[in-house]
Structures are given as structure tokens and as C-alpha cells.
TrEMBL record:
Keywords: DNA-binding, Repressor, Transcription, Transcription regulation. Residues 29-48 bind DNA. The keyword Acetylation does not apply. This is Transcriptional regulator. GO terms for biological process: negative regulation of DNA-templated transcription; response to antibiotic. It comes from the Bacteria. SUPFAM superfamilies: Homeodomain-like, Tetracyclin repressor-like, C-terminal domain.
Length: 219
């Protein structure tokens, strides 16, 4: 068995994430994970009931990799919007760090072990004046943004690695006579770096959230 460690749910999840990083989501099956661990597939069912539970555990494991000391609550005196920005960035970095992680994390169910952490995070926004329902919606929206952006960038990276010939497309988008606005945008040197674009969008979201929150507080 892996490293002589006793089989456990944590060990199964770790091995599944390792397999995900090497070969992608399609390779992650209970049978394959069992083979990697050197045990029979039925043995895993003592610890993992089905693949859905495995994926939920993997999602939680991947997100925990992005945790910082201030992940659950702001550090002393930190405004809630700065904390929310840092927390969201950490989750994005964790999601793009492993192949196919966005597909695993998207739509995952929280495990019982994560409920206390989720409650604390919602409580930060409640303390800032959000209703519990609105606070939960904020995390749903940010989660969707993180997942969509992470998936987009991983797919783009895969496309670039496949050596797709984009010369014809590049010539088209830089044709100022046909597409003056698009060509101007391309010439401006807009960067295709994932974190820069992600933070640009995140800033827009958080600014909008602050404005919305201020309006609700005034009402």
C-alpha cells in the first residue's frame, strides 16, 4: 500500500488528486485509484461509498490547498471586501494549479467536515451587514466566477499546447479596416495572463458588491 500507510479516506482522496494532476479527470475511477494504492477496488468502499463522494472529497482537498491564515475570517481590522478578494484569489490559484480541477470542484457538495468553515465565512459577511441568504448568494456568485475563469484558462492552455495554428485568426483580429475596435484592443497589448484577467474581473465584482451593499444599508 502507498508508502506503507494504512488505507483511509484521506489517503484515497490524496491519491485521486495525484492521479488527476497526472492524467486528468477521465483517468480518475475507483478501480484506477485502487490499483494506484495497491488494493482491490471493493476495499475502497469501506471508506468511499461512490465516485460522487470521492469527487466531493477531492474538491475539498483542492480548495484547502489554497487556504491561508486569513481564509476563514479577516485578519485584524481588515475590511470585508479585501478579505473576500484575497480569499477568492486563493481559491482561483488552487483551482488552476491542478489539471481538470475546475471540473472536479464545479457543483461539488460540501462535506460535513467543511460546514463549520462555510458557516464562519458566511458569518463574516453577516457581521458586515449582509443577511445570511445574501451572504450565501455572494459565495455562490464568486464560486461560479472562479470556476468559469479557471476552466477557460485551463482549456486555453491545453489548446496552446496542442500547437493549434492561429495565424489566420491573428491576421483577422488585427485587420483594422474590418474590425477597428477589435484590432485596437489587440494592439493595446491586453495581456492573456490568467491571474491579471481574473483580478480585473474580481475587482469589478467586488466594487459592484460594495456599491450594492451600501445601497442596501442606506435603505
Amino acid at each position: 500500500m502507498a508508502g506503507g500507510k494504512a488505507l483511509s479516506k484521506d489517503l484515497i482522496v490524496e491519491k485521486a488528486v495525484e492521479l488527476l494532476g497526472r492524467q486528468g479527470l477521465a483517468a480518475v475511477t475507483l478501480r484506477r485509484v485502487a490499483t494506484e494504492l495497491g488494493v482491490s477496488a471493493p476495499t475502497l468502499y469501506w471508506h468511499i461509498s461512490d465516485k460522487r463522494e470521492l469527487l466531493d472529497g477531492m474538491a475539498e482537498y483542492l480548495l484547502r490547498r489554497g487556504r491561508t491564515d486569513a481564509f476563514d475570517r479577516p485578519s485584524g481590522g481588515q475590511p470585508w471586501w479585501e478579505w473576500l478578494t484575497e480569499r477568492t484569489r486563493a481559491m482561483f490559484e488552487a483551482m488552476i494549479s491542478v489539471r481538470d480541477a475546475p471540473q472536479v470542484i464545479a457543483g461539488n457538495r460540501p462535506t460535513p467536515d467543511s460546514l463549520a468553515e462555510i458557516d464562519v465565512a458566511i458569518g463574516v459577511l453577516v457581521d458586515a451587514g449582509f443577511t445570511p441568504a445574501d451572504a450565501q448568494q455572494v459565495f455562490f456568485v464568486l464560486g461560479g466566477y472562479i470556476g468559469g475563469m479557471a476552466l477557460e484558462w485551463q482549456q486555453e492552455a491545453d489548446r496552446e499546447q496542442a500547437d493549434v495554428d492561429d495565424r489566420e485568426l491573428h491576421a483577422a483580429v488585427t485587420d483594422a479596416e474590418r474590425y477597428p475596435n477589435l484590432a485596437a484592443a489587440v494592439r493595446s497589448g491586453v495581456h492573456r495572463e490568467p491571474m491579471e484577467t481574473f483580478l480585473f474581473g474580481l475587482d469589478l465584482l467586488v466594487r459592484g458588491l460594495r456599491a450594492w451593499h451600501a445601497e442596501r444599508a442606506a435603505d
